[in-house]
Design brief:
Elements (H helix, E strand, L loop, with lengths): L2 H26 L3 H4 L6 H5 L2 E5 L4 H12 L3 E6 L2 H15 L3 E5 L8 H8 L4 E6 L18 H30 L2 E6 L12 H21 L4 E6 L21 H8 L8 E2 L3 H12 L2 H4 L2 H19 L1
Parallel strand pairs: 1-2, 1-4, 2-3, 4-5, 5-6, 6-7
Helix pairs in contact: 4-5, 4-9, 7-8
């Protein structure tokens, strides 16, 4: 056996081992209960209270309900008092857990000192940074966004600043107790530079990088900080699309995603969305960026929004 033949055999073996390990790691995501088990008391062991932003509907509402069912009291934060009060009553009636409502608009400035005052005496074990907004209901090019200056400010306040500020408020308590969970909601569209969702996708990239850096800093303190990046969820933001194998209900998605809390610093939250994320990474960007594909995307969202508003 000459040197060149030995080199190619070694290279082939290395490739097989590399992809074998990747396949094993991927296969773990298919069976989260087996690979990432959690005790029934896991959430309550983190602390007495969970805080959920954007909790009046959609994914935030589902997280609030899900954590209450796991035995946690819940602080729900959003800008619509009537919706918050209604959901708070439903959670209390269903689970018997305490619910505290904080009405606030995360697109605005100078709101966090009041929030900090209302949270300072609570033993907070879980924070879900869910609140987020789109520049416009219909995806469009950056310069076509309505009221662009205001849109930029509101988007950064809501999707970027709020997450960092809420971590700044709640993380010190977790650091002192050496335990806690922070879940930061990103989006599947942040997996690649995504035309027509440019500002939104970029804001969610910040969510991912901030979360991953924070997890590296505080992992040794026993704190779990994870990005959850879903694709299709049947919410108002997505035009309340009909649920199927790909488009999940908020309740189904949250139930699945909570099983992946110990699966690493980023997850797409469900088996189907994990597979979608893998496919998105291997599709050539030239295909995704084709004008016909982008036009089809706009037409599809317009159709969904018409259904939502009808």
């Amino acid at each position: 056996m000459d040197l060149m033949e030995l080199f190619f055999i070694s290279l082939g073996a290395a490739v097989v081992v590399y992809y074998g390990v990747k396949l094993l790691l991927f296969s773990r995501m298919l069976f989260p209960k087996l690979w990432f088990p959690m005790s029934k008391s896991f959430f309550t062991s983190m602390g007495e209270w969970a805080v959920v932003t954007g909790a009046s509907e959609g994914i935030g509402r589902a997280y609030a309900f899900g954590l209450a069912k796991h035995g946690m009291n819940v602080v729900m934060m959003s800008r619509t008092k009537e919706k918050l009060d209604q959901v708070a009553k439903e959670i209390n009636d269903t689970t018997g857990q305490k619910v505290k409502v904080i009405v606030t608009d995360f697109t605005q400035e100078n709101i966090f000192s009041e929030i900090e005052d209302q949270l300072k005496d609570l033993n907070i074990g879980v924070l879900v940074n869910n609140v987020g907004s789109l520049p416009s209901a219909i995806p469009c090019k950056f310069l076509d966004s309505p009221e662009l200056d205001q849109t930029i400010t509101k988007m950064i306040n809501c999707n970027v600043k709020t997450m960092a500020k809420m971590c700044k408020i709640i993380l010190p308590g977790m650091d002192n107790r050496r335990k806690g969970v922070i879940v930061n909601i990103s989006s599947g569209v942040a997996s690649i530079p995504f035309p027509l969702y440019t500002l939104y996708a970029a804001s969610k990239v910040f969510v991912e990088r901030f979360s991953q850096g924070l997890q590296a800093e505080y992992k040794d303190k026993g704190i779990i900080i994870q990005t959850v990046a879903p694709f299709g969820i049947s919410t108002r933001m997505a035009g309340f699309q009909k649920t199927d194998m790909v488009t999940l209900s908020p309740e189904h998605f949250v139930k699945c995603s909570l099983q992946y809390l110990k699966a690493g610093d980023k997850t797409h939250g469900s088996v189907t969305h994990i597979i979608l994320g893998w496919f998105l990474q291997i599709i050539p960007l030239k295909v995704l960026y084709a004008e016909s594909v982008l036009n089809s995307l706009q037409d599809y969202v317009k159709k969904m929004q018409r259904k939502c508003n009808s």
